[in-house]
């Protein structure tokens, strides 16, 4: 093993210790007292894999265990082959205990699909090992799940199109192997931040891939690299791959945010990796506040507000509500989210031509908008310029995200600050002003005549013109109000598919 590989394994083991210890401290499926947390390999287990069928929301109850080849278990557990069958598959653990997300996910699935067969796949005896060893077991566990599904097809005529495998982290690849080995084609596999180490860049048959089910959807929430490796897989591996917040830094998971709530450094790493699960739970529980993702070639274009189209299936719901689309691989989709449930927010594309006016050649402006809506108004929002600078004498496109539904936008208040007004630019201008600090510089002026807005969630488009046609020039510290006007853009959206 070379030096870099050793560093990677050290990083993985340290991450494992942190994540697993935090999970063990907060195990929910019921710690030492619950049958789900017994690590015995008694008659309930088949090759170390147990299938715990859940019916009650009370996870203190042990539930019922399915066993391949034992018909009595099917009647005892009340297995209904005509209903949906949902397998929930955990990932790597070193604590031997179920993590808190399992309680939330199982509860949410049962509440949403009360008639479904909800089965927790418990392979902790093999997952509770060093990460490389756990990885080596994923193929066998997937084969075991496929064997169970094949038996259910033979015994109960189980329709595979009604089978949904949901796998978190390493469990996502387990689900992929199950889809590979099963006789026939599973209806759907959902990968919740599939594990990256030892799976990034490998061929399709050695990880979750689009061929493993009729529909494979993936949520990526922790794709940031450290020592050349990412906890969650970076590459697209499904039919639809959704990257909330670019799959990078998740709101509410910054070091200060997590420490303020948990007071525990170990929770920081866990926050972003588990966010995929919590987004999925949110999609189950908040049907009236669904999150939308938008197809885009990459996060940079999305952050510019370019990719908010729903034409030709370019947008979709996320999580449980993701719609199957015609088969096409690796369709990357993006969205921004709130820091907490309900995670869904509202995306707006804004276009405005910034005219370079008096004394503004080196303005380097930072724009702020306040949106006034039919339901609510926003606070002042700083326009996120991904290129770090506004193009003067150019049409600029921005993405503006709001956490609340403000309804149709009625008016927009636009202001800007220049170098001298921005704390971030103080040092940048010291050299310029050092020798001429006594001279009062002329006030720079920019002109914006109209703002075009497209709402991602409704696909409505509007144009806003200056409320006072004589006032389109803005100096730092001043503001111009824009109201709706008809100016070439359609007011009503084109026909779009129902979500």
UniProtKB/TrEMBL annotation:
Its main location: secreted. InterPro entries: AB_hydrolase_fold (IPR029058), Lipase (IPR013818), Lipase_LIPH (IPR016272), Lipase_N (IPR033906), Lipo_Lipase (IPR002330), PLAT/LH2_dom (IPR001024), PLAT/LH2_dom_sf (IPR036392), TAG_lipase (IPR000734). Its EC number is 3.1.1.3. The active site is at residues 169, 193, 273. One of its GO terms (molecular function) is metal ion binding. It holds the Pfam family Lipase. Residues 1-24 form the signal peptide. One of its GO terms (biological process) is lipid catabolic process. Ca(2+) binds at residues 207, 212. This is triacylglycerol lipase. It catalyses: a triacylglycerol + H2O = a diacylglycerol + a fatty acid + H(+). CDD domains: Pancreat_lipase_like, PLAT_LPL. GO terms for cellular component: extracellular space. Belongs to the AB hydrolase superfamily. Lipase family. It is found in: Secreted. The keyword Glycosyltransferase does not apply. Coiled coil: none annotated. Keywords: Calcium, Disulfide bond, Glycoprotein, Heparin-binding, Hydrolase, Lipid degradation, Lipid metabolism, Metal-binding, Secreted, Signal. Residues 346-484 form the PLAT domain. The lineage of its organism: Eukaryota, Metazoa, Chordata, Craniata, Vertebrata.
């Amino acid at each position: 093993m070379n030096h870099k590989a050793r560093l990677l394994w050290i990083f993985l083991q340290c991450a494992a210790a942190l994540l697993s210890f935090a999970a063990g401290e907060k195990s929910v499926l019921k710690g030492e007292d619950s049958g789900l947390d017994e690590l015995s390999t008694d008659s309930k287990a088949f090759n170390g894999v147990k299938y715990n069928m859940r019916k009650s929301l009370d996870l203190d109850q042990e539930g019922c265990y399915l066993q391949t080849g034992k018909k009595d278990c099917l009647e005892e557990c009340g297995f209904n082959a005509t209903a949906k069958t949902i397998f929930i598959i955990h990932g790597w653990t070193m604590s031997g205990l179920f993590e808190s997300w399992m309680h939330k996910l199982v509860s949410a699935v049962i509440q949403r699909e009360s008639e479904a067969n909800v089965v927790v796949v418990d392979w902790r005896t093999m997952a509770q090992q060093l990460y490389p060893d756990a990885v080596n077991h994923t193929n066998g566990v997937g084969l075991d799940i496929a064997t169970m599904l094949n038996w259910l097809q033979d015994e109960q005529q189980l329709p595979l199109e009604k089978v949904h495998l949901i796998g978190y982290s390493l469990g996502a690849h387990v689900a992929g192997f199950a889809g590979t080995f099963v006789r026939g084609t599973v209806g759907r596999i959902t990968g919740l931040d599939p594990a990256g180490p030892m799976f990034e860049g490998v061929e399709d048959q050695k990880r979750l891939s689009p061929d493993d089910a009729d529909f494979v959807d993936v949520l990526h929430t922790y794709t940031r690299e450290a020592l050349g490796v990412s906890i969650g897989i970076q590459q697209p591996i499904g039919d639809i791959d959704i990257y909330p917040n670019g799959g990078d830094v998740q709101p509410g998971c910054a070091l200060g945010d997590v420490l303020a709530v948990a007071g525990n450094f170990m929770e920081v790493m866990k926050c972003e990796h588990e966010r995929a699960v919590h987004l999925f739970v949110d999609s189950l529980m908040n049907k009236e506040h669904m999150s939308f993702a938008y197809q885009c070639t990459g996060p940079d274009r999305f952050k510019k507000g370019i990719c908010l189209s729903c034409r030709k299936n370019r947008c979709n719901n996320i999580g449980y509500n993701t719609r199957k689309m015609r088969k096409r691989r690796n369709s990357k989709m993006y969205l921004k989210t709130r820091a907490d449930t309900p995670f869904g927010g509202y995306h707006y594309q804004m276009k405005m031509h910034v005219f370079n006016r008096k004394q503004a050649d080196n303005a380097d402006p930072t724009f702020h908008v306040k949106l006034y809506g039919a339901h609510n108004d926003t606070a002042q929002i700083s326009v996120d310029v991904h290129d770090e600078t506004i193009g003067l004498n150019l049409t600029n496109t921005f993405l503006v995200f709001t956490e609340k539904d403000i309804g149709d936008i009625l008016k927009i208040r636009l202001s800007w600050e220049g170098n001298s007004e921005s704390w971030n630019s103080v040092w940048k201008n010291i050299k310029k002003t050092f020798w001429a600090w006594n001279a009062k510089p002329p006030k720079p002026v920019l002109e914006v005549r109209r703002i075009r807005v497209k709402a991602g969630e409704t696909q409505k488009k509007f144009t806003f013109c200056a409320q006072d046609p004589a006032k389109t020039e803005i100096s730092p510290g001043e503001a111009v109000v824009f109201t709706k006007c008809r100016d070439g853009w359609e007011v009503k959206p084109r026909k779009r598919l129902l979500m």
